[in-house]
Design goal:
Layout (H helix, E strand, L loop, with lengths): L11 H16 L1 H14 L12 H7 L5 H15 L3 H10 L5 H14 L7 H7 L5 H14 L7 H7 L5 H17 L1 H11 L3
Helix pairs in contact: 1-2, 2-4, 3-4, 4-5, 4-6, 5-6, 6-8, 7-8, 8-10, 9-10, 10-11
Amino acid sequence: MTVEPDVQSRTPARTFRTAVRMVAVRAGRRLAWALSLSAAGLGVAGQAPPRPSDTASLVRALDHSDWTVQQPALEALRERARTEPAALAALTQALRNRDWRVRQGAAWALGRLGPVAAPAVPALMDTLKDSDWLVRLGAVQALGQLGPTAVAAVGALIQARTEADPVVRAAADTVLKDLAEHVPSARETIERAIQPK
């Protein structure tokens, strides 16, 4: 006979993680991921997640198994990346993390940095080949947010238009049209690629 532990003896964070795991089993990992983002942003039981103070600690937090630890670390690295090259390098390296949520979060964070993240363009181009469509979508959107500094990615974005996922294809089309508008030197190549056949 199994005895259920007393619900009141559980910590709010443990109860939430248990609930997310149950949702993940029943509804799939995408819904569970969305729920964990909500909790990570708000904090569990009204408490903000801990935020390590140095870049090395933030990088170590990305390898933690709990998204509520990883997400604030990504956000803190994004905040530091504007002034600390090590933080920008850590976000770029996170595009190769074993956890798809970290890879997608790193792409999002790099996109939010805008042109400051220009050194990450080659890594974002590689991320367009990721096995997870949400990570590929994040990379396409990040390249779009980098604006003209992402012009080197035009070829990879054109290739992304052949992608199996329609959301990623549509995002690649949008980014290419935006680049064609803002980068005259790439306009002809892009227009040839996106013309209906």
